[in-house]
Write a structure and sequence with these properties.
Elements: E1 3-7, H1 11-22, E2 26-31, H2 34-42, E3 46-49, H3 55-64, E4 68-71, H4 83-89, E5 97-103, E6 114-115, H5 126-143, E7 149-154, E8 156-158, H6 165-170, E9 174-176, E10 182-183, E11 185-187, H7 188-201, E12 206-210, E13 216-217, H8 218-228, E14 235-237, H9 239-255, E15 259-260, H10 263-268, H11 278-297
Parallel strand pairs: 1-2, 1-4, 2-3, 4-5, 5-7, 6-15, 7-12, 8-11, 9-14
Antiparallel strand pairs: 10-13
Length: about 300
């Protein structure tokens, strides 16, 4: 029986684990949260609780000896980044694929232009630069024979529990006058399909954009989310107010505008998207989210 290790097993990791379990794969997942460890165990995932820089945690990772590893931990902007330690810990495993979850932020702001995997990267923030450095480290592991890396550049993830409901309820989500940017998203279930396909069909050292078929303007997703939740539409504010509310880094991310092509996802990896556009995926995500909320509200 094959074994998988999910490093940083959170929202996407738990959904990935469920898909792998359907494929008869044993799954272990790392977390630093005791509450999350209980959640993983309830989902049939072996929890590895502790810091990724702790030798005891790394010994447990070695003991898993996975055939598949998926790494979801974002780069650390301060302190020690655990990526090299984790790569070393799986170096002697029968590893078939090491999936490094990166971000399309490495392309930078393109003013609405299209990008694909051949587009030169142009990170414009410390985090995006750190992601690119981590990508390079993970790909170098292919050259040295340590790990067969596939870099997965992920766009905005939505799905049940990630439908803007809380941000719309609180009024935290805003739109910026004159800056209705191009946005790219992917439903979490299609993201999982892409990750599994990258394992099974991807190329060592390959880079794949994981995004749906339809880039869209920021207001389109937000207004549909508000309508589905029967909440007021988000306010439009000017850029100076947005700077005061969000700060420089969050504002820069919000003003990032590009359209991401997913040709390799659908053609090379052969993924048929269940939700090629948020226009079909978001209503179903909200419906599933509402069913979950109603179950939690039952006495």
């Amino acid at each position: 029986m094959k074994r998988a290790l999910i490093v940083g097993c959170g929202y996407t990791g738990i959904r990935l684990a469920a898909r792998l379990q359907e494929m008869a794969v044993l799954v272990s997942g790392t977390t630093r949260s005791e509450a999350r460890a209980d959640e993983l165990e309830a989902a049939g995932i072996e929890p590895l609780l502790g810091s990724l820089t702790d030798p005891k945690t790394l010994r447990r990772i070695r003991a898993v000896s996975p055939h598949l590893a998926a790494y979801f931990v974002p780069p650390q902007l301060s302190g020690e980044d655990p990526l090299p330690e984790v790569v070393d810990a799986i170096a002697r495993a029968p590893i078939e694929a090491f999936l490094y979850a990166s971000s399309t932020s490495v392309y930078g702001d393109r003013g609405g232009d299209w990008v694909d995997e051949e587009t030169a990267v142009r990170p414009e923030s410390r985090l995006a630069s750190a992601r690119l450095a981590a990508e390079s480290y993970a790909i170098e592991a292919v050259r040295t024979g340590i790990a067969p890396t596939r870099v997965c550049r992920i766009t905005g993830i939505y799905g049940p529990g990630r439908t803007l409901r809380r941000m719309l309820e609180s009024g935290e989500y805003v739109l910026i006058k004159g800056r209705d940017t191009w946005v790219n998203r992917i439903h979490v279930d299609d993201l999982v399909s892409g990750l599994v396909a990258a394992w099974q069909c991807g190329t060592d050292g390959g880079v794949y954009n994981l995004s749906d078929d339809e880039p869209h303007k920021a207001h389109e997703f937000a207004i549909q989310a508000a309508d589905l939740h029967a909440l007021p539409e988000p306010r439009w504010i000017d850029e100076s107010e947005a700077f005061d509310r969000l700060g420089e880094l969050r504002l820069r991310r919000k003003l990032d505008s590009k359209r991401v092509r997913n040709r390799l996802l659908t053609q090379e990896l052969g993924v048929k998207l269940a939700y090629p556009t948020f226009r079909t995926g978001l209503p179903l995500a909200v419906a599933e989210e509402n069913r979950t909320v109603r179950r939690l509200d039952l006495p």
